C-alpha cells in the first residue's frame, strides 16, 4: 500500500513540475524542431515584399548560428560600412561601438575574385538579371536560353533585392543580392557574387544607405576583425 502511494505521488509531482517551473520562469524559451527558436522561425517566415510573396526559409537551412544577429566586430571603419568576409562566409554591417549586424552569405567564384573597396550607389528590388559573356561562353547550354535576360521575380538568381557595387564611378558587375536557392547560403557556390537569404537581403537593404562603403576581404583574411587586435584602417 505504501509503495502504491509513493508511486502515485511521484507521478503527480512529475506532472506538476513543468507547470511550477514555467510559472517561476525557469523553463527556457520554446525551441522549434531542430533547435530553432520561435523568434528565428519568425525572422525567416514567409513575407510579402513589393507585391511578391517571399517563401519561408525551410527549417533545415536555419540554425541559431546562421540567423542574422548583432555580434562583436572590430573592423576599423565607420558605422554604416559593410565588410564582406568571403572566407568566413559572413557579411558585417557595422553599427559602431565595435558591433555589427552579421549575415550568413554564400560566395560564388565571381565573389572570390573580387576584393578591396567599393560603394553602393544603386539598390534595386526584384532586379532583372542577364548572364555575362563569360557565363555564356563557359556554359552555353545553361545560360544560352536566358541570354537576353530574366525579369525580376522568385526564379531570378538575384532574388528579392540587389545592392550594386561600383568602384571609381563604374559598375563592377558584382552584387550583394538575395537568392531563390536558400540551400546554397553558407556554402561555396560555382557561380554568382555574394548572396543572402531573401529575408536577410530585404533587411540589409532597408538598413544600408546609398553611397555606403563596402570592403570585401580576400579569402585568405577569413575571420579578420572578429577579435580586437588593435587594427587600424588601411590606406585606400
UniProtKB/TrEMBL annotation:
Protein keywords: Cell shape, Cell wall biogenesis/degradation, Glycosyltransferase, Hydrolase, Peptidoglycan synthesis, Signal, Transferase
GO MF entries: glycosyltransferase activity; peptidoglycan L,D-transpeptidase activity
Signal sequence range: 1-29
Residues of the active site: 177 (proton donor/acceptor), 193 (nucleophile)
Pfam families, A to Z: YkuD (PF03734)
Keyword DNA-binding applies: no
CDD domains (UniProt xref): YkuD_like
Residue stretches making up the L,D-TPase catalytic domain: 80-217
Top-level division of the source organism's lineage: Bacteria
Single Gene Ontology BP annotation: cell wall organization
Gene Ontology, cellular component aspect: extracellular region
InterPro entries xrefs: LD-transpeptidase (IPR050979), LD_TPept_cat_dom (IPR005490), Transpep_catalytic_dom (IPR038063)
Gene3D superfamilies membership: L,D-transpeptidase catalytic domain-like (2.40.440.10)
UniProt pathway: Cell wall biogenesis; peptidoglycan biosynthesis
Family: Belongs to the YkuD family.
Protein name as it appears in the record: L,D-TPase catalytic domain-containing protein
Amino acid at each position: 500500500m505504501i509503495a502504491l502511494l509513493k508511486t502515485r505521488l511521484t507521478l503527480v509531482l512529475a506532472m506538476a513540475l513543468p507547470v511550477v517551473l514555467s510559472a517561476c520562469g525557469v523553463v527556457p524559451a520554446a525551441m522549434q524542431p531542430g533547435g530553432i527558436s520561435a523568434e528565428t522561425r519568425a525572422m525567416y517566415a514567409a513575407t510579402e515584399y513589393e507585391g511578391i510573396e517571399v517563401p519561408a526559409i525551410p527549417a533545415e537551412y536555419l540554425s541559431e548560428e546562421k540567423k542574422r544577429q548583432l555580434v562583436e566586430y572590430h573592423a576599423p571603419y565607420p558605422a554604416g560600412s559593410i565588410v564582406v568576409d568571403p572566407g568566413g562566409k559572413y557579411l558585417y554591417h557595422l553599427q559602431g561601438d565595435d558591433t555589427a549586424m552579421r549575415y550568413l552569405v554564400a560566395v560564388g567564384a565571381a565573389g572570390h575574385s573580387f576584393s578591396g573597396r567599393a560603394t553602393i550607389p544603386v539598390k534595386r528590388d526584384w532586379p532583372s538579371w542577364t548572364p555575362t559573356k563569360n557565363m555564356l561562353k563557359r556554359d552555353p547550354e545553361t545560360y544560352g536560353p536566358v541570354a537576353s535576360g530574366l525579369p525580376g521575380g522568385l526564379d531570378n538568381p538575384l532574388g528579392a533585392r540587389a545592392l550594386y557595387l561600383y568602384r571609381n564611378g563604374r559598375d563592377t558587375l558584382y552584387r550583394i543580392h538575395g537568392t531563390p536557392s536558400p540551400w546554397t547560403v553558407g556554402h561555396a557556390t560555382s557561380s554568382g557574387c555574394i548572396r543572402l537569404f531573401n529575408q536577410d537581403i530585404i533587411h540589409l537593404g532597408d538598413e544600408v544607405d546609398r553611397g555606403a562603403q563596402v570592403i570585401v576581404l580576400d579569402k585568405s583574411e577569413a575571420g579578420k576583425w572578429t577579435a580586437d587586435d588593435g587594427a587600424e584602417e588601411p590606406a585606400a
